[in-house]
Design a protein that fits this description.
This protein is an alpha+beta fold. It has 14 helices and 9 strands. Helix 3 (92-103) runs antiparallel to helix 4 (106-117) and helix 10 packs across helix 12.
């Protein structure tokens, strides 16, 4: 996997409550790759620290590791303590939602998102200057949060194309109804789900016809189309000058870099690098990191998720069997549990409107206003399209009110 892990917590909706912690990565075929699940009381410092310590025990020490999460203080505190050598970043979508809620402006969040996702320092400065002119408070808020936290350009390590915690949110969405189940049933549901995922994805990876994964191959094809409009001028055997519409980039195929920064930040060739590779008749797969190759995807799903069998057949060590697992320390809220989620400030909310008067806030059954008058031009419907009586075939009534109804009865 690319060295980016998204972590998130979600509430359990069963009898005892609690929180489920998820650590997720993304494979070379742009698919969700679950790493670890954990269960605790709530999203507090002790629970997150325990989960991250278990995650470190499973992964070991990994250089250049990047974590992505929301701005929960317990997550940041746990990562800085358990993974001091890793880089903690925040989800740019959650950060944008916080800006919308704080400043009640969607445009400032859109500009911030563009600044976060850009690959070049020049474009980042241009977006931030626009944000400063538009709303000084939003600009100061983004700077105070730390550009190294949310900006791809200023991140100390590679974030690749993972700018949000969407891979973790997908897991939460898949377990939306399973989170209402008891703990052991939920664990078995997750195991069964991953068993199917690993089997199907391993079979799909083995059937791929290209050296790259299907998702990576599709991106390559889209970028190759842009090469037809580029002008390539060799500098030496490895360095090229690529021009398009007055813009110019420098590509080094030996060091796998480009002045657009996409090549080195994603470990995946940009369109300029593909144009330079075509000039030398170089295979584009040699420019891609192993993360995007078919063989790596096969290895990722080569170990199957095995069934656990009946509990009577389990061999449980004595030190594990002697442990007492208590229920989560959570207080259940009064009332019926909420099945959905609270809509964010950017999501559209439907407004009820009355079909009688056209105003919003009520329906036609509770309407006390005068009916709406249609001031537009009347539309005449031809007689051949109007409903006719099935007895006398006249227009203006039906068979129940037809004056010839009685005369037709034998």
């Amino acid at each position: 996997m690319r060295l980016v892990i998204a972590v998130d917590g979600t509430h359990l909706k069963g009898r005892f409550g609690g929180t489920m912690f998820v650590a997720t990565a993304q494979d070379g075929n742009e698919q969700v790759y679950p790493i670890a699940f954990g269960y605790g009381d709530s999203e507090n410092n002790l629970s997150w620290e325990w989960f991250l310590e278990c995650l470190r025990g499973a992964l070991g020490h990994i250089d250049d590791l990047v974590f992505i999460s929301d701005r929960h203080a317990s997550i940041e505190a746990g990562i800085s303590k358990v993974f001091p050598y890793a880089t903690h970043t925040i989800c740019c979508w959650h950060f944008g939602e916080n800006m919308k809620k704080r400043f009640h402006r969607k445009d400032v969040a859109d500009i911030m998102d563009s600044a976060a996702r850009t690959y070049s320092e020049f474009n980042y400065n241009r977006h931030m200057e626009e944000l400063h002119r538009l709303h000084k408070g939003a600009f100061e808020y983004a700077i105070a949060a730390g550009p190294h936290k949310w900006s791809r350009v200023h991140c100390p390590q590679r974030r690749y194309r993972l700018m949000t915690t969407n891979v973790a949110e997908c897991i939460n969405s898949c377990l939306k109804f399973a989170r209402q189940l008891p703990m052991m049933t939920l664990v078995e549901f997750i195991r069964n789900m991953l068993q199917k995922w690993f089997h199907d994805r391993h079979a799909a990876a083995r059937s791929m016809r290209h050296q790259l994964t299907d998702a990576a191959h599709l991106v390559i094809l889209k970028r190759v189309e842009k090469c037809n409009y580029m002008t390539v001028n060799p500098v030496d055997w490895n360095i090229f000058s690529v021009k398009l519409k007055g813009n110019q980039w420098t590509v080094n195929l030996h060091s796998k870099t480009c002045t657009c920064n996409k090549f080195q930040m994603d470990h995946f060739p940009c369109s300029h690098a593909l144009a330079a590779a075509r000039e030398r008749n170089l295979d584009y797969t040699s420019l891609c990191a192993d993360y995007y190759k078919r063989e790596t995807l096969i290895d990722a799903y080569s170990v199957p998720i095995m069934p656990v069998g009946h509990p009577s057949s389990w061999v449980v060590p004595s030190d594990i069997a002697s442990r007492v697992v208590l229920n989560p320390k959570s207080k259940r809220q009064s009332g019926r549990p909420m099945e959905g989620r609270h809509a964010s400030s950017s999501e559209r909310t439907t407004t009820q409107s009355c079909r009688r008067c056209g105003q919003s806030g009520h329906n036609s059954r509770r309407c006390s206003n005068p009916p709406m008058v249609n001031e537009g031009p009347s539309i005449s419907v031809p007689d051949e399209y109007r409903r006719k009586c099935s007895i006398c075939h006249s227009i203006g009534h039906n068979k129940q009110t037809c004056p010839e109804k009685d005369s037709t009865v034998e």
